[in-house]
Amino acid sequence: MSDQVQTHYQSYPYPRYPLIASVRRCDTYALNLEALWARFNRSLPPPEAKKILIAGCGTFAPYPWAVANPDVPITALDLSERSLRRARWHTSLHGRFNVDYRCGDLSDPDVVEGKFGIIDSFGVLHHLEDPLAGLMALEQRLVQGGILRIMVYSRYARREEESIRRAFRLLGVTTPREARRLLNKARPGSRLAGYLATADEAATDVGVADALLHPRARTYRVDELLETLRLAGLKPLLFAHHGALEDVSEEVCRLRTLEKTRQSPGNFVVYLARADESVAAGPSRMIKLNPCLVSAVGFFKLGKLRIPARIGCVNKSLGFSERRFLRSFLSPVPGCKITADQAEMVTAYKRALFLLEYSP
């Protein structure tokens, strides 16, 4: 990756959450290694898979990953020493010490040793000079059955940002202060004013810098993304952006239909595996609660528990009866003991990743 991108994040470490900002463990349920491994491999992770790599960690991601996986070694990799320093402060302040921080380029095969059960590269690949090379480097770091999660910019979700970013480059705007001065002059009712009013990134200097002043940002249509994945030897297991359908083929068809009218549900979030790997269902199955939800479904919890959606589908609030149902899976339950009345709820909670199904 060019020095230009490294300089950008040295100047504007992103995101800029307060160091005291905390997350509930239940909100990290979609980052739990055991849950993700069971979802896509129908088994619990073997010892060699119990390692996580965050490739392009920024200032915050190591913290929720560490909350979700307190007993799993995590390697956090980033180009920016300033981003790594702030990420280290955040995890240390909240008592999370299972993260090893490394500074370097994710495409460099020597920057991180070993292989990993889960690799997360969220919002990173579209900033690389060669995203395909980056994907191939990450694919090489997966253990057998390993899972890679990526987020990349969608062409139509980023139309406003990319229009403004190109205009700023032509005008020679290079700092958030200069960008804000122009944004604040936008005519009421204009597209520019509309962007300023609705974009969360516009609230902070680092947000403006990341969204509108980044030296390199690539966007994708769904078929461009699929072709890049194919060339990297990867296949999609699940699309996890808002509203995504569970079936990959159906979601691809939905995205293609939206793109015909220059629409997108948001940026693409995808879980991936090596294209040459397949999963065979075991002879029997067990069902258990996602480890991140154990304390959240306790008997003495009052009111409704709302957990934001992290894996595409909308999560229903958990009242007393829902928590009681989930508590029945604190210890693994054989699938053969699921009654017909329970089957629909079990299926819904497996889709939401609240329950895990695996072969012992």
CATH superfamily of the largest domain: Vaccinia Virus protein VP39
CATH topology type of the largest domain: Rossmann fold
Strand-pairing-aware structural class? alpha/beta
Tell me the name of the CATH class of the largest domain. Alpha Beta
Number of domains: 3
Biggest sheet features: 7 strands, mixed
Which quaternary structure do these chains form? single chain
Q: What share of the residues does DSSP label as strand, in percent?
A: 15-25%
What's the β-strand tally? 10
The portion of residues assigned to helices is: 25-40%
Q: Whole-number average pLDDT?
A: 93
Q: Give the CA-CA distance, first to last residue.
A: 43 Å
Low-confidence segments, given as residue ranges, are: none
Radius of gyration: 21 Å
